[in-house]
């Protein structure tokens, strides 16, 4: 087992073995555009506002330095345990609001205002974590040495300058990241859960589809007659056209869905579920499209907010709240091939059969 930077926090809601597995993975904790650098110029009042986040039951603080780098640390001053997220940023440092201690992105204390002429004790430092910015998000991990390139999702459309990038507000869900992810991959619920937003309540049949292993996880190409036009804004669907939904899973809690519209129009949706705790999830959903790129993003935000709310109403009521990795714990149908493959992926990662996330 790889060494963690910090031990599991008190009040752990995960099985400890599961926590250690998930701590080695990269997870999103904030939108990049919401982590602002301190104002330029320095001097009095040139303060930035850090962001508070919680990942795997551990409270974190996220801030951007004056040079533009993003830092992630435990939200705890080493002096008297005050949350650093209550403070502010100046230059490259984050400042504790209790006694003004300043910490750099490396975690080392740079200044103790009560004793500015004395050397700072080496032990006066905070736990910091690696941070990368990708797909409009700040990602971090709590343990291990796995590089981001080996575990972050793939999202080709996001880096294509011809595509429009869209960053809807995150959604907080009183449910597990595993249950939320499985719901995103489920193709049999369209006619029942999303009939008000895009699906046809009379189009309930799920055509056969295959799930294929990939180097990173699994994928499926799901062809059906279920359109993806928002209700009331339907476009023209050619006769006999089959909609392709290409799902790519990047465990533990990310999946990319690319929807093939008529012609060459494409819409890609990255479902990035951040496990706040075993049964609380912060959902980030970066979106990119190669059509309507000059159109405002607010209607996209509104449409997706409705879809998220429809799914949230289901996820928050499921029992058990945990995602059972023991395949005998719940019944399955043929349409569940992707969700079954997803559960098997998590089991192969080393998560327990009584997985609580």
Break the fold down into its secondary structure elements and pairings.
Layout: H1 16-23, E1 27-31, E2 51-55, E3 58-64, E4 70-74, E5 88-90, E6 93-95, E7 102-103, E8 109-111, E9 128-129, E10 131-134, E11 137-140, E12 164-166, E13 171-173, H2 177-185, H3 190-193, E14 211-213, E15 218-224, E16 243-250, E17 254-260, E18 266-277, E19 280-284, E20 287-289, H4 298-315, H5 337-349
Antiparallel strand pairs: 1-11, 2-3, 3-4, 4-9, 5-6, 6-7, 7-8, 10-11, 12-20, 13-19, 14-15, 15-16, 16-17, 17-18, 18-19, 18-20
Would you give an account of this structure?
- It is a single chain.
- With 357 residues, this protein is of the alpha+beta class.
- The protein folds into two domains: 16-148, 3-layer Sandwich (Rieske Iron-sulfur Protein), CATH 2.102.10; 153-349, Alpha-Beta Complex (Naphthalene 1,2-dioxygenase Alpha Subunit, Chain A, domain 1).
- Helix content is 15%, strand content 26%.
- It contains five helices and 20 strands.
- It has helices at 16-23, 177-185, 190-193, 298-315, 337-349, and strands at residues 27-31, 51-55, 58-64, 70-74, 88-90, 93-95, 102-103, 109-111, 128-129, 131-134, 137-140, 164-166, 171-173, 211-213, 218-224, 243-250, 254-260, 266-277, 280-284, 287-289.
- The strands form four sheets. Strands 12, 13, 14, 15, 16, 17, 18, 19 and 20 form a nine-stranded antiparallel β-sheet that branches. It has a four-stranded antiparallel β-sheet with strand order 2-3-4-9, with no helix packed on it. Strands 5-6-7-8 form a four-stranded antiparallel β-sheet, with no helix packed on it.
- A hairpin with a 6-residue loop joins strand 6 and strand 7 (102-103).
- The longest helix has 18 residues, at 298-315.
- The radius of gyration is 22 Å and the shape is globular.
């Amino acid at each position: 087992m790889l060494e963690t930077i910090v031990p599991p926090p008190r009040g752990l809601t995960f099985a400890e073995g599961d926590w250690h597995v998930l701590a080695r993975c990269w997870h999103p904790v904030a939108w990049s555009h919401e982590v602002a650098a301190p104002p330029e110029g320095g001097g009095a009042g040139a303060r930035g506002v850090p962001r508070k986040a919680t990942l795997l039951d551990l409270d974190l603080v996220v801030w951007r330095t004056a040079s533009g780098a993003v830092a992630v640390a435990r939200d705890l001053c080493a002096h008297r345990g005050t949350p650093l997220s209550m403070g502010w940023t100046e230059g490259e440092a984050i400042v504790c609001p209790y006694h003004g201690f300043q910490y750099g992105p490396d975690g080392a204390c740079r200044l103790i205002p009560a004793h500015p002429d004395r050397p700072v004790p080496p032990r006066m430092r905070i736990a910091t974590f690696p941070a990368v910015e990708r797909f409009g998000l700040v990602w971090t991990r709590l343990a291990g040495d796995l590089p981001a390139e080996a575990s972050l999702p793939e999202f080709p459309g996001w880096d294509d300058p011809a595509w429009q990038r869209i960053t809807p507000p995150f959604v907080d869900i009183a449910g597990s990241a595993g249950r939320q992810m499985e719901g995103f991959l489920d193709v049999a619920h369209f006619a029942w859960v999303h009939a008000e937003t895009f699906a046809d309540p009379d189009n309930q049949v799920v055509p056969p589809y295959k799930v294929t292993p990939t180097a990173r996880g699994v994928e499926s190409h799901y062809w059906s007659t279920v359109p993806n036009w928002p209700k009331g804004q339907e476009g023209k669907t050619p006769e006999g056209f089959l909609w392709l939904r290409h799902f790519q899973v990047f465990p533990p809690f990310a999946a990319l869905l690319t929807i093939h519209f008529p012609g060459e129009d494409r819409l890609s949706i990255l479902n990035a579920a951040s496990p706040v705790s075993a049964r609380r999830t912060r959902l980030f959903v970066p979106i990119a499209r190669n059509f309507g790129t000059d159109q405002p993003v607010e209607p996209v935000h509104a449409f997706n907010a409705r879809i998220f709310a429809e799914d949230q109403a289901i996820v928050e009521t499921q029992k058990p709240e945990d995602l059972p990795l023991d395949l005998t714990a719940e019944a399955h149908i043929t349409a569940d091939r992707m969700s079954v493959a997803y559960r098997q992926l998590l089991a192969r990662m080393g998560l327990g059969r009584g997985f609580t996330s």
